[in-house]
Amino acid sequence: MKSYIVTTYGNPEEVVHLQEVDQPKPEGKQVLVKVKAAPVNDYDWSASSGLPKSYRLLFGWSKPRKRFQRLGMEVAGIVEETGPEVTQFKVGDAVYGDTSDHEFGSFSEYMCVNEKALHIKPERMSFVDAVAIPHAAMLAYEALIDLGKLGKGQQVLINGAGGGMGTFGLQIAKTYDAEVTGVDGAHKFDMMRDHGFDHLIDYQQEDFTQNGKQYDLILDAKTNRSPGAYLKSLKPKGKYISVGGKSGKLLQLAFFGGVIKLFTGKLFKVLALEPNKYLDKMNEMYEAGAIKPVIDGPHSFDKVPYLIKYFGDGLHKGKIVITMEEDIL
To answer: Is the pTM of this model over 0.85?
Structure first.
């Protein structure tokens, strides 16, 4: 079968290669999935580029370790074969999920993964929409609802708002009648306006921590400042939730968050994602029309190296989705 492999760090267009590899055989609780669609995530950029360099402590310092040489961490497809201990699925089931707790490798024709990483795809949900939901929507929901305790009518700012997590965050916040400000590059503003952001900030022109405005809740995918820089952007008892950013700044948040809460009453947290935790809730919201993935694409399978670079350059609008077949819906 064909699978994208990376064995050295560099420009993804140069180091990510399509190779012929043996088709895996499911064992134990594994299922073999015929891949229909897969999205690009931070993992794919970092595991192929080696950036930021601090991530190499996990992926491998000089080159990716074997486990991280296969790219793709979400999948939507059809169960082709089941291991002898599988109880949740049968051959022919349409499934999807965030597989990162168990396996990588969805940029392949087939993927073997533990059944715990998958859910049944709702019949009325396309493969493209399904694969866009698990990681990005979980980040947004767990941050806003679990940690942020979002309340009705609150003022919310999302930094990194024009990608998958940010566009889901907007839609989830709107179910609470929130007033939502999005921070991103101006090239995404038309899309962001169309999808309902109330206010937009071009991060290249304005620093939201310096403009004097305050929010009940800040959801940040780009954490690149010390905790003190965000304090004045939060209302009394406001909450700052990070879902990603520079490792040094994330460590500061984790270390000083309790002290900041003690002295200011403002909450600072780094989200520890629980993959697929609220997929059933996302299915309900999708069926009710409350959420709809914003898709960049779908793109063809041969564009994977380019699309990883495109993601790293921050050019994408919504969630980048790749399909194995041109007519996939």
So the answer is: yes
